Fold this sequence. Notes:
Elements (H helix, E strand, L loop, with lengths): L18 E2 L7 E10 L5 H11 L4 E6 L4 E6 L3 H8 L5 E12 L6 E4 L2 E4 L4 H5 L12 E4 L7 E7 L13 E6 L13 H10 L10 E6 L6 E3 H17 L3 E6 L1 E4 L2 H12 L3 E5 L10 E2 L7 E6 L17 E4 L3 E4 L7 E4 L2 H17 L6 H11 L26
Parallel strand pairs: 1-5, 9-11, 9-13, 10-11, 13-15, 15-17, 17-18
Antiparallel strand pairs: 2-4, 2-5, 3-4, 5-12, 5-14, 6-7, 7-8, 14-16, 19-20
Helix pairs in contact: 4-7, 5-6
Amino acid sequence: xxxxxxxxxxxxxxxxxxxxxxxxxxxxxxxxxxxxxxxxxxxxxxxxxxxxxxxxxxxxxxxxxxxxxxxxxxxxxxxxxxxxxxxxxxxxxxxxxxxxxxxxxxxxxxxxxxxxxxxxxxxxxxxxxxxxxxxxxxxxxxxxxxxxxxxxxxxxxxxxxxxxxxxxxxxxxxxxxxxxxxxxxxxxxxxxxxxxxxxxxxxxxxxxxxxxxxxxxxxxxxxxxxxxxxxxxxxxxxxxxxxxxxxxxxxxxxxxxxxxxxxxxxxxxxxxxxxxxxxxxxxxxxxxxxxxxxxxxxxxxxxxxxxxxxxxxxxxxxxxxxxxxxxxxxxxxxxxxxxxxxxxxxxxxxxxxxxxxxxxxxxxxxxxxxxxxxxxxxxxxxxxxxxxxxxxxxxxxxxxxx
Length: 402
């Protein structure tokens, strides 16, 4: 839908204008814009000033500790954007942009409080052993915790809620593709990610609560205006309910300042964010939200402890995790599985470890939780990591190893 705007004022030459990014990249959504307010802004007051200047109809309004601003659609944007830039509360204006996906167990043997899941998916086995011995195929963990009482928000394509691996722990949170429907998965990617975070067979934290926040459609595509609204919802939901919370974002696109700002503020507000480094075999600094320093950015490794050929790299990558040929839950039935590769698969391993640690009651900030995860990692093992890139591999330590 397009809206006609009426310009009602002129811009005083003495005012400092907000930054306007008019670059129309291939992923830019025509006639769709995201406006960022300065973080100390009273959103209702600022919107009132905007509406007094122009006939703008916000699509989303963002008002949380993570992000403040609004998105809108409209033509005749050149004059309108210049007018909006004169509003003192506005920090910058950017084109909205598309965002995309980043691309059986025998039995469980109990040993007192410790559990060894034999013949586990190789990624789980790898993060619970210090040496890469292919003969060791068990995932060993402390059964006292397993992420119990922790909430994992999965910003993705939704979740197959009926899958038996979730045992009723997966619920719909919000849907920014179709707000009238639950966040059911019609792609499979979000279910796969969720299974790695907290599936009873394929997951790291086997008792974590999974909350679907649908920001990508059946083809795996969404937009940053919806992602920003989703992050706004996640932070408000987690903080208002005083939840121990982690969030997983196995998605991305080119560098985008507003999204990075929102992720950084969400982490500062107390929500741990695990972010996929990206699958373009280049520096993660080129992509968002992977270029957010406050997030925990995850690269992908294979079963030889080598950086996956597709995985992004660079100084912003915090740790590597298994991301090649990962078996997990899928859509189509309550027992469906699929094997996928990508930093999308590596990231939920780290989100699961974060949930596991929060379930143990570790007392730390969301930003320091990533540092804690790094300190528990297996160091100096990733081969061909890339220039200025960590060589640490994710590890889910049980108490005897800490």
